[in-house]
Write a structure and sequence with these properties.
The protein is 41% helix and 23% strand. The chain contains 14 helices and 15 strands. The longest helix is centred in the middle third of the chain and has 24 residues.
Length: 373
């Protein structure tokens, strides 16, 4: 008998997607039930699934607020059903009222009912008054997660090794730079958008243009043992020296300590309609949850801190769904006020002590695993 997997659409598309991934077999068909408001989510799911030659149908309630009318919903659904089909019904999405109406219709047919208590990773079935639980094995990747929220992304790669990022971390955090050397890093930020010749920047006449002369730049490059022998620095190398090294350090830190399902660095969002944040430093998935980390070597002003926090909140609220977890990793000293401000906005603030104290590092990893599972 033909099987049709039934999904009820709501703002959260992850439960629909992972249920289909867990239950779909070759020959199955898909049926989506949605309000007019949520119908665009169907395309997000089907595009991400990318099932070739799979029949896909939908029931979109014809009028606004039909999902609040029991009779309107049940009539439109029943007109599309058949006694010759086995329906696999995922009751997770939609409103509670929609879910009850849909269950009321499908129980007249050959139907099995399931529910995911998302963000938990198992499926509940209720047949013959016996509760059954099935663990979800499928794990969503970063690109899939973004696609389910209609986001196209460009993915980058780490440019240096973990060993080199750790070397730079040691220099930066353990007081091995002089004040002048920290100042060189700050001055280099003015050149992050261009390629430079080291000797020209060292000999630049003071007071000309917006970019400063940087004395002893070549000696600094030698001290940090930067793998560059050309006498020039590309804008990408400058971005690494002025902060990108910390992003890569965090990327390797997460990879080593956590073993996530999927891990990406420098995720660039191509389309953002609700927020101006379009570049994510470190992103990973674990247990079908998304984790986004903003990396800052320092936060000089509280206004900058607040700007980062507000952007992170907007990203979570408008783009990445309720199951996303946002972090700000910084090498700034511990500050209870900053920690509380971030927490109030749903962001976890991780200061430098988490990278210097192994117990705190383990505490952070345990916290992430708790969120994931």
């Amino acid at each position: 008998m033909k099987r049709i997997i039934v999904s009820i659409i709501s703002a959260q598309t992850i439960p629909n997607f992972i249920f289909i991934k867990e239950t779909f077999s070759i020959g199955d068909e898909l049926l989506f039930i949605s309000s007019k408001k949520m119908k665009e989510k169907i395309e997000h799911i089907t595009k991400t699934l990318n099932y070739i030659n799979c029949p896909i149908n939908s029931i979109v309630f014809s009028k606004d607020n039909d999902e609040e009318s029991w009779q309107a919903m049940t009539n439109q659904i029943e007109n599309k059903l058949s006694k010759d089909v086995c329906y696999i019904v995922n009751l997770t999405g939609g409103t509670k009222y929609m879910s009850l109406a849909i269950q009321n219709v499908f129980k007249k047919y050959n139907s099995s009912f399931f529910y995911i208590p998302f963000p938990k990773n198992y499926i509940l079935s209720f047949e013959d008054n016996i509760d059954k639980t099935k663990l979800i094995k499928y794990r969503v990747g970063v690109k899939e997660y973004m696609s389910l929220y209609n986001l196209d992304v460009v993915l980058k790669k780490a440019t240096q090794s973990y060993e080199y990022a750790s070397h730079f971390f040691d220099l930066f955090v353990n007081g091995k730079f002089s004040q002048d050397e920290y100042s060189i890093i700050d001055k280099l930020r003015a050149y992050r958008d261009k390629n430079i010749t080291i000797s020209k920047v060292e000999n630049l006449e003071e007071g000309t243009g917006k970019r400063p002369r940087i004395d002893n730049l070549e000696a600094f490059i030698e001290k940090i043992e930067f793998p560059n022998k050309s006498g020039k620095l590309s804008k990408y190398e400058l971005q690494y020296i002025t902060g990108g090294w910390f992003e890569e350090y965090v990327y390797y830190f997460i990879k080593e300590k956590l073993t996530p399902d999927d891990l990406k660095i420098g995720v660039e969002i191509q389309r953002t309609t609700n927020t101006n944040m379009n570049d994510l430093d470190v992103v990973f998935t674990l247990g079908n949850k998304l984790f986004v980390i903003e990396c800052k070597t320092g936060i000089g002003k509280k206004s900058l801190f607040n700007e980062i926090i507000y952007k992170g909140t907007a990203l979570k609220e408008y783009l990445l769904g309720l199951s996303a977890n946002s972090y700000l990793f910084s090498l700034t000293d511990k500050d209870e006020d900053l920690t509380q401000t971030a927490s109030n906005m749903g962001i976890s603030y991780i200061d430098r002590t988490y990278f210097l104290d192994e117990d705190k590092s383990n505490e952070l990893i345990a916290q992430i695993k708790k969120f994931a599972y």
